[in-house]
């Protein structure tokens, strides 16, 4: 295939990263929070980036609590840990060629999603 598509290998890499990241947040929450990293956008401008609060929210959700730091956390978690894996399995079993996604479409979709998260995170905060 051409370089303008994201194929099965990249999807497997994403899934592996999601599983690893989820396990780290679920098993080592104090270690992750102990890193005390800060959002540079928030420090410099006072505005919250699209992901401000998501680490704390994902740790809360991994332990059965409701997210409360970013209004988009639950939607992002459902998209990453439910919708994406279901789509991946369904597509792989049915029509594997649908695993190929044009990079430009993915980039546009991610930019739009980040814009929505940015606006939502700053309106609610």
Walk me through what this model shows.
This protein is mainly α. Helix content is 68%, strand content 3%. It is built from 6 helices and 2 strands. A two-stranded antiparallel ribbon has the order 1-2. The longest helix has 22 residues, at 73-94.
Mean pLDDT figure? 87
> Structural class, from secondary structure content?
mainly alpha
> What is the subunit organization of this protein?
single chain
Distance between the termini: 44 Å
Portion in strands: under 5%
- What's the number of structural domains? 1
Instruction: State the total count of DSSP E strands.
Output: 2
* Helix fraction bin: 55-70%
Shape call? globular
Number of helices: 6
Features:
globular, two-stranded antiparallel sheet, mainly alpha, 125 residues, 2 strands
Summarize the structure.
68% of the residues lie in helices and 3% in strands. With 125 residues, it is mainly alpha-helical.
Show the helix and strand layout.
Blueprint: E1 5-6, H1 8-27, H2 29-34, H3 40-45, H4 54-62, H5 73-94, E2 101-102, H6 103-124
Antiparallel strand pairs: 1-2
């Amino acid at each position: 295939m051409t370089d303008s598509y994201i194929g099965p290998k990249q999807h497997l890499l994403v899934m592996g990263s999601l599983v690893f990241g989820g396990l780290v947040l679920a098993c080592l929450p104090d270690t992750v929070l102990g890193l005390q990293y800060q959002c540079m956008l928030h420090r410099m401008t006072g505005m919250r980036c699209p992901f401000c609060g998501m680490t704390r929210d994902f740790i809360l959700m991994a332990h059965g609590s409701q997210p409360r730091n970013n209004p988009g956390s639950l939607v992002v978690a459902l998209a990453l840990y439910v919708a994406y894996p279901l789509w991946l399995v369904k597509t792989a079993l049915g029509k594997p060629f649908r695993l190929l996604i044009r990079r430009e479409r993915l980039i546009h979709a991610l930019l739009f999603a980040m814009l929505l998260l940015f606006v939502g995170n700053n309106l609610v905060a």
